[in-house]
Fold this protein.
Amino acid sequence: MLSKLIRHEWKSTWKMIAVMNLFIAIITLLGVVTVVSKIWNSESEHVVTFAVLSAVFYYISIIVVSIAACIYIAVKYYRNLYTDEGYLMHTLPVSKHELLLSKTIVGSIQYLIVSLVIILSFTFIGLSFFYNMTPTDQNEILTALFVDLWPELEKFMGDTIGFNLFLFVVYWLISCISSVLMSFCAISVGQLFTKHKVMGSIFCYIGLYILIQVVASFITVPFTGISILENSFAPAMITAMLAIEIVATSALTIVFYYVSHYVMSKKLNLD
Amino acid sequence: MSSYLLEASGLTKQFGNETIAVNQLNLEVGPGKIIGLLGPNGSGKTTLIKLINGLLTPSSGSVLVKGHAPDIESKKTIAYLPERTYLQNHMKVSELVDFFADFYEDFSKERAYMMLHSLDIKSTAKLSTLSKGTKEKVQLILVMSRDADLYILDEPIAGVDPAARDYILKTILNNYNENATIILSTHLISDIENILDEVIFIKNGSILLHTTVEDIREQQGKSVDSYFREVFAC
């Protein structure tokens, strides 16, 4: 039944996510054209103003799409499980775990896709800047990256560079799942309010966000403190910090999942 | 195992500190019956139905469907029609048929398409393009295309015109398995009186009366509609 739920969930949500990705692709293309057309070097003040506004528009659009994707996944969850549509979803012969897992898997994959598309967009914009440079500037950048920076990084990080990169990717993946489940958890807790359930959900989300920031600070502050005090930053510290972040985020993700499941299975009260 | 299809014992649902929508309700329903769940607005009919379907968590007491508290097994047993539209507006009728066929083993696509055809509802139509009444018909068709043991229909004829009411009642009668039980909630009693075997009168969240239609006619010398008006007179 889980695979059927996932299939139907994907079918009912992929179009909006595709539109968001298409929008990022279009603004990236416009950005690349703006950069490659060298309008930055124009002598006309209006053209330069247009270029600056385009850059601002690009960055704001990326932020808006990123937030919109998160909101869309959360609203879909709310509408599908806690409004009229919930009368169908909660009377399907499936377990609450299957319901929640299907939403988590589809939501996380879609959020990951949007994040990846944003990373690709930044990469293309960066490459178009590089392509637009003079051969001398290009050489300087390449030298700075591969002759100066990379060997230094290798010398500093030693064997841990690949492992830390792997940890970072794992952390990014877990963060995406955690973001999705955090919104599910906030919506679920909001359902425990007798009135103003949506407002309750928003306040819960803000509360959880603050909580996570506090937890993250508890993890990073000691490491930063040690590095400042000892005037050094050992590669092992990066590994330890990433590992702790992964464990803490995973623990929070599990808590978000179980709270959402608990409300759905033990405290369900559809209006 | 109990021979009852549906059993509620001491079932209570309280909202907040004051409103008790269902109050210490006890109920036993056997198989093969058409039962009218009758009561004025706010008497607790919909709350009771939602408790049976697991859409509300009881404050106390229990409800069992074929011996199961609301769970996967009870949901396989019940075909539920709520009093609101629970289908996703962006879906086509044919997609909804596929959706039901995917999740309910007892769903008959053939029966669904036959009913859609006889009501002249296009399977290619998006739900958002249909009128409220047609959406309700689609929903009823989907529910009645199941071969369930217990049908729970909450106000199935409230929002449609009298002609459609006749069709809906005909649809219900023609499409349910005779060993199954139908619980039909409504306050339009005269329209359904002739098809009922039993009635349950509910008031202030408690059961006032659970008897056969025959008994009411014999003992009270009245139709169910007249008796209902007498019992619930303001």
Q: What stands out?
A: Residues 1-132 of chain A form one domain. Chain A touches chain B at residues 1, 4, 8, 11-12, 80, 84-88, 90-95, 194, 266-270 (CB under 8 Å). The CA atoms of residues 91 and 216 of chain A lie 39 Å apart.
